Amino acid sequence: MIKKNKWKILISSLVMLIPTVVGLILWNQLPSKLPIHWGPDGQVDGWGSPALAVVLMPLILLGIYWLCLFLTSKDKKQADQSPKAIGMIFWIMPFISLFSSGIIYAAALGMEFNFTALICVLLGIVFLVVGNYMPKCKQNYTLGVKLTWTLANEENWNATHRFAGKIWVGCGILLMLCAFLPMKVFPFVALGIILLAVIPTAIYSSSYFKKQVREGRASYEDVKMIKYYPKWAVVLTTVLVVAILAFAAVIIFTGEVTVAYGDTAFTVDATYTGELTVNYADVNAIEYREDGVDGHRVSGFGSPKLLVGWFRNDEFGNYTRYTCGDLNVACVVVTMEDGSVLVLGGQDDEASKAICDELIARADK
Q: Residue ranges per domain, the chain?
């Protein structure tokens, strides 16, 4: 499949890297941190560095895209697959890459838009496209509705995918109509629509198979003969699991917070997250707290080594945090002129005290 479609794969891969090229062109216009995650209320609740948004995210999507291509190419039943169904694989991920990066750049450059409405439209389009191509998808192990009954019986596969195609198209229309709903109810409605796309399809396939058995056109022995996990899939899964566990171990047990002091501003940065720059002129008060600052994370990054992101407690309300260790470790509370609060902390009490002393000295100049 890859050799036969090498030009499509090359072009689609290059399309996925267009956001990186655009980001590099706009590099000097982008802020020091870019929005990379929106909460259920449609508001930004996660930030990342330009390097993460411009370079790393498109590369991650490209890696996922190539993994999907590899898995699909290993499926022997894809040899006679419908060209339209294969074409769907080539262009869905590039579309998502362009769409997601476009939203990030637009928000970073100050453009205002209804994020929830855009997501509704995106999900709706994906459901419409997938639903349209489902009836054209031939039986295989990597695309489509892969249930016991569809894999065991080609007639069941075809009937289930004709049914699922109609369901998914209808769900796509419903998702786009969700653009007119209040932001707070969208996650619940969207979840209901997704379940509507999945559950009836599974029930239909099961019922259809039972009907086939009654009429002598299928047998439960066919189900027992299905081989779900070829050797290459087991090896690949093992490698991925080991890689994920190793990555998780690095994230959990490493990381630090650093503060760079300039003449007019200081920049705080934490491993695996974006940096934050604060002007000394915007600082109203600096306080060292030996017992730390409590609160719960609203969004951001947390591990045994780092607490970074937006937090909330009864004293400050919402505040930004860049600290090592747990909540009870000594830290520095920086209160801004606008009332916002930044909590900083180093690897230990001595490092936090050093940060506090340096900030006070520079802010007093």
A: 6-246, 257-363
